[in-house]
Amino acid sequence: MNGVPATTAIPYGGDYNPEQWPEEVWDADHRLFGKAGIDTLTVGVFTWSLLQPAPDTYDFTVLDRIVDRAAAAGRRIVLATGTAALPPWLAKAHPEVNRTDFEGRRHGYGQRHNFCPSSPAYRRLSTTLAGRIAERYADHPALLAWHINNEYGGACYCGLCAEAFRGWLREKYGSLDALNDAWWTTFWSHRYTDWSEIEPPSALTEHWRGPNHTAFQGITLDYRRFTTDALLGCFVAEKEAVRAHSPHTPVTTNFMGMYRPLDYHRWAPHLDFASWDSYPPLDAPPTWPALAHDLMRGLKGGAPFWLMEQTPSTTACRDVNPLRRPGELRLASWQAVAHGADAVLYFQMRASRGACEKYHGAVIGHAGRDDTRVFRDVAGLGQELGRVGGVTLGARTPARTALLFDWDSWWALEMSDGPSRLVRYQDVVHSYYRAARTAGADVDVVPVTADLSAYDVVLAPLLHLVKGDLAARLEAVAERGGTVVTTYLSGRGDEHDRAFLTDVPGPLGPLMGVRVDEWDSRAAEWTNPVDFGDLRSPARLVFELVVPQGAEPVATYTTDFYAGTPAVTRNRFGERGGEGWYVATQLDDAGTDRVVRQVLSRHGLIGPYAEVAGVETATRVTPDGTRLLFLLNHGSGEVELPVHESATDLLTGKAYAPGEPLALDPLGVCVLRLA
Amino acid sequence: MNGVPATTAIPYGGDYNPEQWPEEVWDADHRLFGKAGIDTLTVGVFTWSLLQPAPDTYDFTVLDRIVDRAAAAGRRIVLATGTAALPPWLAKAHPEVNRTDFEGRRHGYGQRHNFCPSSPAYRRLSTTLAGRIAERYADHPALLAWHINNEYGGACYCGLCAEAFRGWLREKYGSLDALNDAWWTTFWSHRYTDWSEIEPPSALTEHWRGPNHTAFQGITLDYRRFTTDALLGCFVAEKEAVRAHSPHTPVTTNFMGMYRPLDYHRWAPHLDFASWDSYPPLDAPPTWPALAHDLMRGLKGGAPFWLMEQTPSTTACRDVNPLRRPGELRLASWQAVAHGADAVLYFQMRASRGACEKYHGAVIGHAGRDDTRVFRDVAGLGQELGRVGGVTLGARTPARTALLFDWDSWWALEMSDGPSRLVRYQDVVHSYYRAARTAGADVDVVPVTADLSAYDVVLAPLLHLVKGDLAARLEAVAERGGTVVTTYLSGRGDEHDRAFLTDVPGPLGPLMGVRVDEWDSRAAEWTNPVDFGDLRSPARLVFELVVPQGAEPVATYTTDFYAGTPAVTRNRFGERGGEGWYVATQLDDAGTDRVVRQVLSRHGLIGPYAEVAGVETATRVTPDGTRLLFLLNHGSGEVELPVHESATDLLTGKAYAPGEPLALDPLGVCVLRLA
Amino acid sequence: MNGVPATTAIPYGGDYNPEQWPEEVWDADHRLFGKAGIDTLTVGVFTWSLLQPAPDTYDFTVLDRIVDRAAAAGRRIVLATGTAALPPWLAKAHPEVNRTDFEGRRHGYGQRHNFCPSSPAYRRLSTTLAGRIAERYADHPALLAWHINNEYGGACYCGLCAEAFRGWLREKYGSLDALNDAWWTTFWSHRYTDWSEIEPPSALTEHWRGPNHTAFQGITLDYRRFTTDALLGCFVAEKEAVRAHSPHTPVTTNFMGMYRPLDYHRWAPHLDFASWDSYPPLDAPPTWPALAHDLMRGLKGGAPFWLMEQTPSTTACRDVNPLRRPGELRLASWQAVAHGADAVLYFQMRASRGACEKYHGAVIGHAGRDDTRVFRDVAGLGQELGRVGGVTLGARTPARTALLFDWDSWWALEMSDGPSRLVRYQDVVHSYYRAARTAGADVDVVPVTADLSAYDVVLAPLLHLVKGDLAARLEAVAERGGTVVTTYLSGRGDEHDRAFLTDVPGPLGPLMGVRVDEWDSRAAEWTNPVDFGDLRSPARLVFELVVPQGAEPVATYTTDFYAGTPAVTRNRFGERGGEGWYVATQLDDAGTDRVVRQVLSRHGLIGPYAEVAGVETATRVTPDGTRLLFLLNHGSGEVELPVHESATDLLTGKAYAPGEPLALDPLGVCVLRLA
After folding, report:
1. Active-site residue list of A
2. CA A250/CA A246 separation, integer angstroms
3. Beta strands in A120-277 (DSSP E)
4. Quick one: fold of A401-602?
5. C298-321: per-residue pLDDT in tens?
6. Closest residue of A to B182, CA-based?
7. pLDDT grade for B187, boundaries at 50, 70 and 90
8. Which fold does the domain A12-87+131-152+252-388 belong to in CATH?
9. In the list B317, B470, B530, C33, which could disulfide-bond C38, CB 3.0-4.6 Å?
10. Nearest Cβ partner of C108 from A186, A205, A504?
């Protein structure tokens, strides 16, 4: 059952909470769903207090009716286990299920997504509920997939978690000597002599100024890993409870893209398919959600994922919640498909009448109209998806460029005292991703443990920690003739964030052919222009002073006492023309583009429309070998492009001969089936 | 005893704390009071530890001497019950009287205004003290008014309050079903099955990022109402204890104007007269304190109030504490009288020698001089008030314009997730008030439950919640030929902040003749110019997209995909030329002026000096029908105005014939008795 | 044993933590130490868990080897007592040794420098450890000095501290009446009737918005004094334990310069010599560390101190950690010597492999190289210091200008409500220091209790509290013909921060010949130009309105209603031409320069290079009377100066005749032995 659920078209619909409404509203809902081409409903996400109103009472009456009503209308159900928000009686009976926060405060009942992952009561009751639901609905004909819990996240610092953490550590390290060595506890006289002395790293123990400031990175790294595993344990327990009754229906839980608290790479093997909720930050460029899509696709080795949530119009949780303007929803939805989504789903079908999400956009608003602009746009997209049918399902991305994404490096870098608190992992990773994507390269975003043998180019920005055999595998890329790009603040620490006792960049040194003698960091507004010959890129934040050990300079600093020394280098490696590129500072976009395009062009990976600003391309190859080329115009002007081979636009049916011009409206989308 | 205390002139004086000083200082004080025309002293505000040094010991020796000394000098006393700051022994003996804060932390002894309103010990001891004081001084000839406690405020989240909250809810809702429905608890599986499951909404339960971010608005709204009522309960209990001994002397407590935590409209019926402490924010325009004055006047149906505190010179509690420049104190004091104040009082008579208010301005400074600039200004004002005598006492404002002010809407709007956290209730309400006042209209600031039948114009900006029969009463205004103005984000929720299941603006829709199809929100710096024909107003923050349902456009958006759609509309309503105006976005001052002046001019409510920048006018009508016209020059230049009818300036005695020019100095004041 | 340790050259080296490393690394270290001229190592700072792995187990094996290894290499040891970071077992066995923070939260195990100073367990165990170490190493030939604990700081608010605070108060005040009077508790009904009612002033009691906002300054001032004394008690206890075994070796602890939490003047008598860790704030001008050096030198009456820590390259703990550029380390090190340092030491000798300081600069980096730029610079400085030898040791600064530095005033001023929270004590004190230093005056930075009889000029900016006989001693300076300069917000309070019941500036009034009638404060961006005749200085923040009582105006305000009134005054005082200068507002640098230079020039204290921007001069006189003139070029350009008397540069051996030009490179240093 590994893989997305089997469907014949792109599932379209989303989160639906009819339990909040009288049944006459349900009828109106389904009528509107029909108008909008909606065939898939995620139900039950927050129904625990409904399904289990008391410890010994389960009541499925309402859920039965919801599911049956959907089935009667010919719709499929993604069924949630409902365990993401506690019922009040549970919190009252078992106060320890409420988390203790980073500040050491035991919370009381409220909100959601805030159960202690180490609580035996939570584990018992949530798995029992999941099992009961599975038992009841496993064979329901409308059932399409299982949706465990919802948006797992956060962390707990209670005594139960402390005890579980100690067990996790004992399992990992075996001995306190190994742990003391890994965490380098001698530094401040923290040598543990008994496991019970270890406390979760919090504002009351190792931290100050918040989660990124820790006295010992080792313990904090391990607590994040432990938290990842503890929540994963909750997922796995529910999944097993479901599997006992439903051995074949695919199981997922909805992720949140680049979500820092949880290392999704540790979760990926346990999901049948990946799914995620896309709410890009305000003013994010289109490559931002694209990066997240590719990261999610990378979770299951490139297999398609589901877009489990997006808003049809606005969010509500931000200080400012701009509207998706006409065309933006369509464009974002096709972008998801272009990057591997096999479903397009919304949060939410009908706007809540009360509570904090009542202003979150919905397919159906409070007045229940079908003549709002938003409804019309949703319905239009539904019809379009319907027209395309199942052709995109199961397709994969034939990328020859990989970008390494590593939660451990993210965590370690951003919790580091020195050199600069201003370097943001996501921003830098995105800057390299953006450069590759706008150059027209398809990119796989993969974990550091991924098989790299299929790639010509590996981008490894801010590879702060180098773990296991990664350095050797990167060298192998170059030995095959490929190119590896890494940056400042890479190769600094091992898996415990202990410095390598060698020159920087540690195990990446031979491949890069440089050593870093020292490093400077400066305030955000300070720049050192980096000279590429015909381009000057104002570098910022961190400036490593590089001493070449075989590498040749590509660009140099132009000011300060290290003016003239290399800021970017390339190093011939191996016998087949492979190279290691080292970028010793934070370039601006133009500088990053220069580096990345130069590398991609070595391998013929520059796309045909790389010079057309705002137009994104993405390729998918279907199981039967059909090549699909997605053209997405993120710009506000019309664009005319030459078509390079015979193709048919799946959205319009229009056929193009090679060289024929193709017009893309502002925010326009074209899905070409290449001949 | 409803109404302000009976006096023959405007009471002048303020807070006086001689218990901090040896008695020789008292003599100096009274000598200076004489020089300054001070006849009224508020005493006893922070005397609990003095009056009751131990649980079983009361000692009135010092207070007796203070009151007698004042009486001997011919001064009247506003006597406080002294219960606003706990004595140390009480906090020690009953730790539960110290509040538990929003973060869940039980406080220890310190500060003031921080007793738990649900504490039985506090209730018992405070009412006992109030009763003892009343018993002793009820018949003292110097007694003018009772001053219960001081600046009630804040909130507590302790177990006692939780229990009291549950009782309050049970009283309000009767059943948990009703409560679950009101709070829309099904949304996140929060259906309560036992009253004991309900916890105060705090940082540890339903909130994140502070008091404005709640998962469930319903519980948070109710907790604010409960807090209002709980503190009101403390007031009422003290008042009853006082009344038992003093049935006729008016009772008040000093409010704080637009103070968000407490809904003063719930308190108003329980006060004999309203009083408040005016400390306008830094750089507040003169309409800001004016709005607060009018709000306070509105508490008792337009009856006069007392200005209980203001600083003669500077505050101390702010980061920056500018001096009131020469003339500003006088102008602000007369402005208070112009808006309904029947007393002008200061905090404080003599500067404290120690503790956090020692730099707060005082009539008498640390050196005890009578030749400081501040003392001279205070004395000058005292003489001027004395010259005017009692003519203003009891006068009322003949306003034909009402502005609705609604704490529930304020709370609901600002705790809302979406559309924009940047909209501030006070700012928007003030912007409409400012527009009306600078156009020369007298304005009553009234609760949404007020009788609106006397008004030609009702301004209802940000009327987020529409409760009870308000919509019908607003329609009745228009049916009589009047005009109602409301804005974006109005008509959104019922009294529980549940969305109306109709088009926006909910029950206001028929009167406004529009429906809002969707809404956009943007960052603070983003503007969409709204076109009025000859004026463009850069609108900001929230942009509702209006579909007229009978209304005609007054102004339109000029950019974005909704360019050309209405931003301001007017709707003919009823048979007598009444209108409903809808302003779908946040206009700048010029745009708001345009809307409000156009509306006021329909009803002939533009004042004679509406084109004279900086000059405020206000009208009061005395009990004998005398019309007083206050002219206040807030500008820094001299202004010459034509007098429109025969009048006499009460401050100078100068008589004016119609058409005669009247000169107002910078910061000048004129109180015209109209013929 | 009062005084720095006896050495024959400037000790050079720093913190060394070989216990973190295998012994083969130690050999490499000592080899590199030899290359760098390093002769002094501070060891044992964080070794508690190593030396005492269990309550009853002490193990000195590793420390023995470290000390012996150093001795074998001919290096001297500064031996720490290792008590600054708790071992885990101790925190587990005695949870009360972990502090309770300002928010009332009991911490768990973690970090360092966070033991409760009132904990009996900590006191017992730390003194036992110190005694054991002293017993073992007192007679070791490598021992040069004792280093108690490390960077004492912070505060605790636990029950043990509350109890200790009450005892401290009882000792200080004798009676509650005295305490109530000192704290002015009547103000808000806080009259204590039992010592047990007193709670530490924290976020849960008297404070809001943090440590600077207190309802009662008296209790908060006393708590800071108590905290100073409580931590001092820990130091003294350890020192006594050391002294029992080591009666002659000098004892110190490393201070942190202008460190607000602790009043180092209360500590100074208990140290044998002062030492401190210099990490100037980002972008601090060179006078900032200079001020700190002079403050540290002032602790022991002008005796030399040790620079115990500085970074050879970068810090790690800041958001941004710039590199010390080539030449900066050398310049900063010689600046320390110029101001009285008799040692130049680093944190740290070898970079930690793990934990939060692994990126902090070190003499030896992770790769162990001796060919890094930093190592070369360190080695170069070591050789230079070696060449100069012992000539600077024991020298003193012949200053005729004193600057008063007063922790009580700092605390009182910055915890004051009103007039302005924007006035920063350090910034203003620095501005006067900077003006004097850049004019070429040597300055002693002394406590308010210092003997002032040797000074011609006393600068007393922001002398907020005037305690004891200080006013009389300042008058004595003027009576001798000297000049005293003070500023706005001086002379405001007594030692309890109670206002003086006289005109401002209180006891300074007669000397200054002014009274302050009132004061204004304005937002940061607002300025009032102060007119000096040929100079206008834009004054900011606070504007006192001065009424001369004998003083003559030096400069006047130019705007606002007090335009034309004095902003700076001078007052002839006494028979010998002495003067009191009063600066009633915050001038900019040019204005402060004008005042200070005018005062210095009265006494012939303007230095020979006062007009040469960027060049700092400092004088030291050695025990044998040799005069040394340090010339330090902080500028980025070469400077040529005339030499004014016969001199020899100790660094180059070059001799100069009077009038001969002396060239200083950018960041250049010259140490002239004057003939």
Report:
1. 151, 309
2. 9
3. 143-147, 251-252, 254-255, 275-277
4. Rossmann fold (3.40.50)
5. 999 999 999 999 999 999 999 999
6. A354
7. very high
8. TIM Barrel (3.20.20)
9. C33
10. A205
